[in-house]
Specification:
globular, 3 strands, Double Stranded RNA Binding Domain, 3-stranded antiparallel beta sheet, Ribonuclease iii, N-terminal Endonuclease Domain, Chain A, 2 domains, about 240 residues, mainly alpha
Length: about 240
Amino acid sequence: MADLQDLQKIINIKFSNSALLEQAVTHKSYLNEQANPDLQSYERLEFLGDSILGEIIAECLYIKFPQTLEGDLTKMRSSLVSGQSLFKIGQELGIEQFIITGKGEGLSNSAKKRSVVAAIFESITAAIYLDQGFDTAKEFILKTFESRLSAITPRDVHKSDPKSDLQEYTQRAFQQLPKYHIISQSGPDHEPTFEISVQIKSDIIASATGRSKSEAETKVASLALRKLNSKLSES
């Protein structure tokens, strides 16, 4: 594990409470090997960081694109804060070297590594917010996303995105959002397989498997769209 002082230098923020940053990079597998019940993993911070990140990016897009409709703004935000996008940013910052894991926990599985690195970027965002306040967290996000925010345009969001397309379809046709449910998780912790179903109204439309929740949700959304479009063409 690398020194967290180095991480503070990378993000250019000196923490008043370094325990927050330590929690932000601590994987739950590490807690299983410790006797201290007060230790916490990054997961609660990830929850908070996800909301903070979404709010800051949403405000930036709202100001930058005053003529863009809500649907396209939502798609742009989703693209910027997607797991893949956050993983790439995490790679650029070198986050992986700072992650604290249990001895038996490896991040060699590519899907799991992408998920954890993306989540820890969000938890670091929350740690900055709690330690330094909203303005510092906002400055960190805008600086980190600067090149991506400069490059994105409304045209980019019209590329195929099954989850967004399914959401738009169900809102338009049923005035409801699709609901994703985890049916099962199998395989070892370092290489899990998720089976996820999608529910529209009271019906389970389809199910699919993937090496991560995100991958399985994307697959099942694509299947659901094909089924819904097929029914529409038959009617």
